[in-house]
């Protein structure tokens, strides 16, 4: 399926920027329902232009193939052209949620950031972003709410057109990370707090003394498949122990992460493991794109290994590995886990743009924002937050015992 719409700027409007020469100012939006329809273009733009790892063709393709039907999602893959030349791919999705219809970034719970895939040299101004949006808006299906959240301001140094739109607001939610630079062998000493570096050095010496101790980093299919099973087993054991709901138990999510890892040998997915004394102590799953490492999943063995803090050890070794690969940024993504503070990360602001179209959409947006605000307030009071989480875990454990 393909639907097209065109938008011509008003006479006397600003000339387009973007470094794409003297192209016609006209923007045209085309709607596709399958990633395969855009495959050659998508691969070229992600290779030569700008995108995050979460909008790579391999990631989005696996997401659509495995999760879309299970979650009642209708992909809306928008190709934007200017003067007949492709400048952007915008992956969106149509969903029905709790009595309202919503269009949002193609995420389905598996993407940390909302952003388009941009052509090389295309760096739109706010005025251009509005013209692009009007062309896109013209081909979207009817909905109660159009909402993009967790938008970074820039994508590989280029302005994110979604974040330039009028009505965009800062979220009370941040991602964090730090720049990777210099000698890999001295990286941890430079980025860690003194106390964490001392603690890591002690734990690393203990790990290295174990029989067969080794750190594994792989993008090879067979090795990733084996490590993936280890990671899932460790994660489920840990969540069961804590009495917490396991997000990967949602329909299709384990299959999605496995398929995304195996979809393109050599990247963007990499898997990591710590092995010693005949067993895996920790496993991790991450994405590499555009000089950045994104942490996605991390698990560890419990029981006798807990005092070694294998999760912390594998995270530190991945950082050193990333610098050895000449990556220049380590992205912790979203979340305020306590261990991150020891690496002195810098917060990155994220943005939201919401467009309620109907009364239902306005009500839905109000509820979404109220829930998010309540969660942020709890997180600012750790003791209260932990009591609330403990209560939820107790209720889940009681329900599980009754069933």
UniProtKB/TrEMBL annotation:
Pfam families on file: Acetyltransf_6
Q: Which domain of life is it from?
A: Bacteria
The family database entries (Gene3D superfamilies) matched by this protein are listed as: 3.40.630.30
InterPro entries for the chain: Acyl_CoA_acyltransferase (IPR016181), BioF2-like_GNAT_dom (IPR038740)
Sequence ranges assigned to domain BioF2-like acetyltransferase in this UniProt record? 197-341
Q: SUPFAM superfamilies this protein is in?
A: Acyl-CoA N-acyltransferases (Nat)
> What is the protein name given in its UniProt record?
GNAT family N-acetyltransferase
